[in-house]
Amino acid sequence: MTDTASQPTTDLPPAWEPATVEAELYERWVAAGYFTSDAGGDRPPFCIVLPPPNVTGSLHMGHALDHTLMDALTRRRRMQGYEALWQPGMDHAGIATQNVVEREIAREGLTRHDLGREAFVERVWAWKGEYGGQIQGQMRRFGDSVDWSRDRFTMDEGLSKAVQTIFKRLFDEGLIYRAERIINWCPRCLTALSDIEVEHSEDEGELVSIRYGDGDRSIVVATTRAETMLGDTAVAVHPDDQRYAHLVGTEVELPLTGRMIPIVADEHVDPEFGTGAVKVTPAHDPNDFEIGQRAELPAITIMDERGVITAHGPFEGLDRFEARPAVVAALREQGRIVAEKRPYVHSVGHCSRCDTVVEPRLSLQWFVRVAPLAKAAGDAVRDGRTRIHPPELAKRYFDWVDNMHDWCISRQLWWGHRIPVWYGPNGKVMCVGPDEQPPPADEGWTQDPDVLDTWFSSALWPFSTLGWPERTPHLEKFYPNSVLVTGYDILFFWVVRMMMFGLYAMDGVQPFHEVYLHGLIRDETGKKMSKARGNVINPLDWMDRYGADATRFTLARGANPGSDMALAEDWAAGSRNFGNKLWNATRFALMNGASTARAVPARETLTEADRWILGLTDALVSEVDRLYEEYQFAKLSDALYHYTWDELCDWYLELAKVQLAEGGDRAEATRAVLGHVFDVVLRLLHPLIPFVTERLWTTLTGGESVVVAPWPAASGQPRDPEAERHVVAVQKLVTEIRRFRSDQGVKPGQRVSARLSGVDDAGLSALRPAVASLARLNDPGDDFAASASIEVAVAGGTVTVELDLSGTVDLDAERKRLAKDLAAAEKELAGCDAKLGNPNFTDKAPAPVVAKITARREIAVADIERISARLSAMSNG
RNA sequence: GGGCACAUAGCUCAGCGGAAGAGCACUCGGCUUACACCCGAGCGGUCGCAGGUUCGAUCCCUGCUGUGCCCA
C-alpha cells in the first residue's frame, strides 16, 4: 500500500477562492450544453419558467432568493435524469421602461410627442439593446442553469403573436370589452392602472364637513377631497335614515356652482359615518360612480389628465392639491364649513410605479371580463390540479379569484403591445388576429392608440415562451410547467393571471402542477429593504466578497416556506465559512488518497466508524430527498450543513485519521469510504452551491461534471444500530474527557496519560484508539499516577477514566462541575418522581411513555449515586 | 373597517402534546501539520400575558396585549 506521505498532493489551494473560478466554470457548463433542453427523447420533463425580470431593472436580493431556489430544483431534477428546462427571459415593463426612456430624451429637451410614436418606440428598442442585457450577466454570476438558447422577451415577435392571438380569441368570445368606467389613473404616468397597481397607505389628510343648501333645506356632508365638490351631482343618504327621509327627492343648491343637485337614497351609504350624508361625485370616485349608475345621475369630470381643475370658475387651472384649500377657503367665506378635522388619517391610493396619488377617473378603457376565467383558475386549485405550497396561501388565492373585479388592460402608453383593434367609418370596430391584414387606413380605419398592460403578456409566459400558439415540441413536452417559484407578494399580480390565461389558452389544462411561494427578503431587523431606508443589500456585493455559492447558501438556509427572511452580512460570512470547511475537508480526504475508483468494501470488513458514517450518509440522502419534495429549503440546507460539519468533519475525519494511520487494508478501505461519502455529499450539495462542489467533485472523482452526475441514492445497505450506538458512546466519552480537561485548564494540545476501564464491557474495545486520539490521551507509562478520575455513563455501561495530570488538580473546579451535574440529575429525578407518583399518569399515559420516564428515573438515580460518591470522596480525600 | 399570520436564548429563526434546539453573537482555552473563513469547552430561555382542556401544554382552545402583512 502506498504511504500517505508519498501520495501525490492535490492541486487544490488551501482555500476556496470563488471570484477567480466561478465565471470560468459557468461558461464551461454553458459551452458543454448542460442547460440546453431537448424536446425529444424519453427523459421525463421538468420545467420552470423564470418570472421575467423587468428589462429596466437589475437583480436584487429577492431575485437572488428566487433564482437560488429555482436553480436548486432544476439542478436536482437534471441530476435525477429529467429533461430539465429552466426558461429565462425578461418582460418589457411598459410604464417603467417608457419612464426611463422619457427621462433620457428629456435630457435632450425632448418629449415623446416631439419624436412621435414610431421614433419613440424605436428609441426604446435601442435603449433595450444597449442596457437591457445586464440581467443576463447577473444571472450568469448567480450560476443560474437556464437554457440560454431559449431566452425570450415579451415584446419578441413570437410572444407578440401570442398576445394578439389570445386577445382576438377573448374579444371574439366577448371576454374583452371596452367601456367607460372609473379607473385608477396616474396623473404623472398619464395612464390607467389596474387595481393591483395601486398601493394603499394610511396618509394624513383632512376631513371637512360642508353644508349644502340653506335653512331647513340644507344638509351637511363630510369629505377628504373638498375640491371634488365641483363635480358633485347629488347627495346620498341611507334609505332608512329617518333624519333625512323628508329631504330625499328634493334638491339643494351646490355651493360655489349654483347648480341644483338632488338628494337620493342609496343602500350603500353608511349612516354611521359622519353625518350619514355623502356627496356624490360620479366622475371622481368609484363608489360614487356606482351610486350614480343606480340613481341615473350625470357624471361631471372636473379635472384633466394631469389632475388640473377644468371646471369653469376661479379654480380652473389649479392642480387638485392646490384646488383643495382654495375650495375650502371659498366655502369658509360663505360660512359653509361646519367642521374641520386635521390631520385626518385615511387610506390613500398611490401609483405603484411612481407613488403619485392615484386619481379615480372616468374614462373609456378595455377590460377583461374575468368571471369565467377566475372561476376556472379557482377550480384548478380546488381540484388539486395545481397545488400551492405552502397550503396556507391557497386561502388567499381563493379570496382573490373568487372576488375579482374586471381587469383594466389598456394603458395610455406607447411602449407595449398595441391593442389590435381598429376603428372604421360609421363606428365600425374590428379586432385583427395575428395572421390577418389590418383594414386599410385610406378608408378611414385607425388603430386603437393604447397598449396592453404588461401583465397581459406576462400572463402568457408559461406557454408563449414554449412557442404557443404553435403546437411546438417544447410546448408539448413542457406544458404544464412542473412548478412555479415566486414570492407570495405577486400571487395576485401574476400567478392568478397565468392561471386564468393558461387554462383558457390551453383548453383547460393548468399551467403548473405546483406553485411554490417563498417569503420576502428583509434586513437583519426584519424591515423591508428599500432604497429610502438605505438598508438594501446588493447580491452582487455579496458575491464579490463571499462568492455566489455563499450567497446562494445563505438564501437557501433562510427559506422557510411562506415566511420572510431576515438577512445580515454575518449570515453570508457563515456560508462562506461553510464552503471553506467543505473545501478543506475534501482537500484533506484527497491528500490522504480518498478515491471513488474502488467500491466501498463489504460492510462487515469495515470499522464501526465506517458503518456509522455510511449509515448517516444514507439517512441524509433520504432526508434531503424528502425535504426537497416539500420545498423545505431551510431544513434541507441545515441537514446538509449539520451532517457535513458536525458529523463528517468533527467526528468521522478525526476517526479516519486513526484508521489511515493504521495503514494497509484498513487505510485503503478508509480511502474508499472517504471517497464515497464525499462523492455523495458533494452531489447532494451541488444544487445549492454549484461552483465549489463542481471543483471538488471533478477533482475527487475525475468525472466530467457534477452538473450531469447522477443524483445520489441511498446504498440500500441496512444501517448498523450497534455501530451507531458505539460511536455515539465514544462521542459522549470523548466530550466528557474534553470537558474535564477544559475545567482543569489542560491545554487542548497537551497529551495526558490516562487509564481507561470499563471500555470493553461497554463494547467500545475497537474504538479505544479513537478515544485516545480524540481526547489526546497517552497510554499509562510505568510512572503513571492517577491524580483525577471521571466516570462516564454511556449506553453500554460506565467507563472510568483515570488521568495523570502530573500536578495539582483544581478540586474546586471539579467540585463545581460535579455540583452542577448533581443538581441537574436531582432535578431530573424530581421530575420523574412527580410523574410516576401520579396514578393518573401511570394509568392514562401510554405504556411507552411510562417506560421511558421509568428508565430516565433509573439513570438519574445512578447519576446521583455516582456523583455524590465522587463528591464525598473528594471532601474526605 | 374586513381577513390572515406571528410573538421561543442578545439577534435571526426551527420545534408545535410526553427530557427546550440551531446559526450568529458572547466568555474561556488553543496555530492539536484539512481548515484561525479554524479547533476544544462554556454562558445564555418561568417558550408575550391571563384563563381553559389534558395524567401532562412552548405545542390544543378562549380572551388580552404587541408586531407584521393582505384586502377595502
TrEMBL record:
Motif ('HIGH' region): 53-63
Top-rank lineage group of the source organism: Bacteria
Positions of ATP binding: K531
One Gene Ontology molecular-function label: aminoacyl-tRNA deacylase activity
The keyword Nucleotide-binding belongs to this UniProt entry's keyword annotation: yes
Quaternary data: Monomer.
Known function: Catalyzes the attachment of valine to tRNA(Val). As ValRS can inadvertently accommodate and process structurally similar amino acids such as threonine, to avoid such errors, it has a 'posttransfer' editing activity that hydrolyzes mischarged Thr-tRNA(Val) in a tRNA-dependent manner.
GO cellular component, one term: cytosol
Protein name: Valine--tRNA ligase
Catalytic activity: tRNA(Val) + L-valine + ATP = L-valyl-tRNA(Val) + AMP + diphosphate
Valyl-tRNA synthetase tRNA-binding arm domain boundaries: 810-874
Note on domains (UniProt): ValRS has two distinct active sites: one for aminoacylation and one for editing. The misactivated threonine is translocated from the active site to the editing site.
Compartments it resides in: Cytoplasm
Domain Methionyl/Valyl/Leucyl/Isoleucyl-tRNA synthetase anticodon-binding: 610-753
UniProt record similarity statement: Belongs to the class-I aminoacyl-tRNA synthetase family. ValS type 1 subfamily.
EC class of the enzyme, as a word: ligase
Keyword Protein biosynthesis: yes
Key words of the record: Aminoacyl-tRNA synthetase, ATP-binding, Coiled coil, Cytoplasm, Ligase, Nucleotide-binding, Protein biosynthesis
InterPro entries: aa-tRNA-synth_I_CS, aa-tRNA-synth_Ia, Anticodon_Ia_Val, M/V/L/I-tRNA-synth_anticd-bd, Rossmann-like_a/b/a_fold, tRNA-bd_arm, tRNAsynth_Ia_anticodon-bd, Val-tRNA_synth_C_sf
PANTHER family documented for this protein: VALINE--TRNA LIGASE, CHLOROPLASTIC_MITOCHONDRIAL 2, VALYL-TRNA SYNTHETASES
